[in-house]
Amino acid sequence: MYEWQITSVAGKHKSRKRLGRGSGSGNGKTCGRGHKGSRSRSGADRSGLREGGQIPIFRRMPKRGFSNVQFAHRYEVVNVSQLERFEDGSVVGLQQFSDVGLIDRGTSKVKILGGGALTKRLQVTAHKFSKAAEQKITGCGGTVQVA
After folding, report:
1. How confident is the model over 5-59, as pLDDT tens digits?
2. Are 30 and 40 in contact (CB under 8 A)?
3. How far is residue 146's CA from residue 5's CA, in Å, rounded to a whole number?
4. What are the angstrom distances between the C-alpha of 119 and each of 78, 87, 144?
5. The dihedral of CA 49, 55, 60, 66: what is its sign?
6. Measuring CA to CA, which residue among 92, 83, 99 is closest to residue 126?
7. CATH for 75-146?
8. Model-level pTM?
9. Closest CA to 90 of 133, 125, 122
10. What is the dihedral sign for C-alpha 30, 34, 36, 37?
């Protein structure tokens, strides 16, 4: 394959910037960092939250309201169409979802949503079901069980 050919691979791997290789390279001497100052040195913090001795903005702002982040229930979502991969008449639960890769881990909460169609009769166990999903599963002769 020639370098001049345009393919899906062309430009995939950008060559690294070679610093400190003479003034003709454009990145010699100071290596593109300018002269002096904290940003010219290694370990420079480029965070926008630093304010150089002034109290940072997030500390000047008052704390207000309530955050629900620690109490919120987060569910991993499985659509009804994804249940098609299981065999007809099988019992499907959290462990089976985890085994086939529909959810990240067996400990997470699962909600079944009604996206897509289902043709198989399944016994499905999950933490929550949408009304549409429940109707589609029971409509095929399957059963729904809340874990």
Report:
1. 666 777 778 889 999 999 999 999 999 999 998 889 988 877 778 888 999 998 9
2. yes
3. 57
4. 16, 11, 15
5. positive
6. 92
7. 3.100.10.10
8. 0.56
9. 122
10. negative
